[in-house]
Amino acid sequence: MKIRLFSANHRTAPVELRERLALPDDALPRTLATLRAVPGVGEAVLLSTCNRVELCVVEDGACVEDLEAVLGRAAGLSASQLSPHLQRLEDEAAVRHVFRVASSLDSMVLGEPQINGQVKEAYRRATDEGSVGPLLHKLFHKAFAVAKRVRTETAVGASAVSVASAAVDLAGRIFDELPQRPVLLLGAGEMGELALKGFRSRGCRDLWIANRTLERAAELAAGYDAAVLPWSRRVEFLTTADVVLCSTGATEPVLTRDDVARARRARRGRPLFLIDISVPRNLDPAIRKLDPVYLFDVDDLGRAIDEGHESRRAEAERAERIVDGEVTSFGRVLAQVHTAPLLRAINLKVREAVDTEIERTLGNLGGAIGDLPTGDQQRVRKQIESMGAALAKRLLHDPIAEVRRLGEAGDVDALGAAAKVLGVEATLLSVRQGDARLEPKEAAVGDDG
Amino acid sequence: MLVLAGWLHLAAVLAYAGAAAAYATGWTRTSSVAVARGFWALAIGAACHVLVLVIHGVAAGGLPLGGGVGSWDHPFSTLAGLLAASVAATGLARSSTRILGAFLSPMIVGLTLAALLVDSASAAALPGALDSAWVVVHTLSVYASLALFSLAFGSGVGYLLAESRLRRMELVGGLRLPSLQVLDRVNHRAFSGGLVGLTLGIVAGTLSAVHGDGAGADLRAKILVTVGLWMLYALGWQARYVLGWGGRRSAWLAIVGFVGLIASVVGVAHA
Fold this sequence. Notes:
The structure holds 2 protein chains of 2 kinds.
Chain A: E1 2-8, H1 15-21, H2 27-37, E2 41-48, E3 53-59, H3 64-75, H4 79-82, E4 87-90, H5 91-102, H6 114-128, H7 134-153, H8 163-174, E5 183-186, H9 190-201, E6 207-210, H10 214-224, E7 227-229, E8 243-246, H11 257-267, E9 272-276, E10 293-297, H12 298-369, H13 374-409, H14 412-421, H15 425-432, H16 439-448
Parallel strand pairs in A: 5-6, 5-8, 6-7, 8-9, 9-10
Antiparallel strand pairs in A: 1-3, 1-4, 2-3
Helix pairs in contact in A: 2-3, 5-7, 5-12, 7-12, 8-9, 12-13, 12-15, 12-16
Chain B: H1 2-29, H2 32-60, H3 75-93, H4 101-117, H5 133-167, H6 180-211, H7 217-242, H8 247-269
């Protein structure tokens, strides 16, 4: 059994292709069902977002081209269109990729938080469709745990990397309980709107928009559930607003130092945070000298974003080390995947041989013990069965330990040779096909061994 | 009881030292886990220390005046205990302020060590004139105000540091400090509380002097300096409401005011 992963992401596929690969919600169950119908496929999880498609399957001899064809057909792409843009990974490399994707280390914006939720959703959908088995269950749960470790032990997603997030981050360093702060947007520029969106997404609901053209302010306000403030009242509103975002096309300052100084008195020590995203600047730079007033312009935000990118890159190195460690530890689970069927096959073969010999021995003893009372007969039978089990256990100890060692070393060829030497190839096949006879008893022998 | 108090005091000293070490580790290695450990060590130390004060109080049948590191007239130890308690209470009320212990734990350790180095047996017996209810109010108020001014000092230092980082756009690296508004609020509340305590302490001290033998020359100097500082604080406090002062100015006021107060307590007392 192999974990196999196909990925089309921002590094391997152009945006036109990624757009087509982004499957609509209702197409997902159908695609998962088609994937599971491919011979040899045991489990499948399909993540499809606007920026990446990841198909993770557990398969045993499935045809790779068939899997790619299913993916291509779902997106209306031919094999020749899709194939050059697919990244193909197996086992350890596939595990590493899943961990990196869930931890947002493979994202276009390093450390962005949405991808973790998208991976969880993809896993949930696949579980609902019944296409997740024990291995992908373990893999994805481990991936979520790794993502949590990365999030808590590194600051890979902590620093701001956009104008909106930089503005919100700065505000968070000034204000307590940011969602309760009144936010005023002066002007209706695109950057200002982005910043306003950032504050809204952080839970700010007391939003105000002032623009020279009232209609434009009303239009923008409707989209953000904000209130409209007449442009002429912007100065007096400084006593109320805690955050002022300025993005106008004016050539003269729309707020002067004196405007802010007057408001400051009425604010009684409450800080005022102003962001001037306009070029040329629309807030008097002398405002910076007032205390406790914090004015930042577009260059400051640019610096914050640069630092944020730099910091995320540095933190990503730490995060990669965490992922490396977790991949190694998950390697043991993978080793079990390779060794478990073989161990079951060995156990099955030995148990069948032991059972046969016990029955034969009891048959041979039939005359000798037939005269004994029933209780004694049962005791004899039990003793012989125990001896058979103990003998099997003792004889199996070394081969099982060696098979486990080979599995942990990932030596698949040696495992195949071991299966041949032990004469369990045929039994191995029935184990892989899910022989129900095997489940409880042989597992106990394997665990003990 | 006093033996138990001795052990508790030792536990407090060790906890404070551990807290200072953990905070230092947290600060230098940017480890929030170490900061959390520092805070809890400080909180445990504060709890032990407050118990020491209570035990001494019970043993003395009132305010523990009259000697020993757990007694109220031992300024270093008492101030350390009350300061640690105020930092712990602030941190418990708002977890983001637990980092304030990084600025104040060295002071707490220093005060505690100073208390241990001073020979407790040499603590002078209280003059009979000071044995009154006004002295009790005066002592409690002054110690509480000192602890609160110390907390205001710590939050003031934190504010200036956080503001300096923000203005220089140093947004990555280093431990995250509480927001400026939180630091300013802690500063203002501690400062206001300290001012109330100081006012009460001055009034009670004056009344005890009036009802007693009157203040000696050294005490008069102390009163003069303290009243001068009180006026400075009161003006600074009022400026917040009249002139909109806050933030950096409040932080500086807390720092300068605290240094002045310590100078008045230590300098004038030992002049």
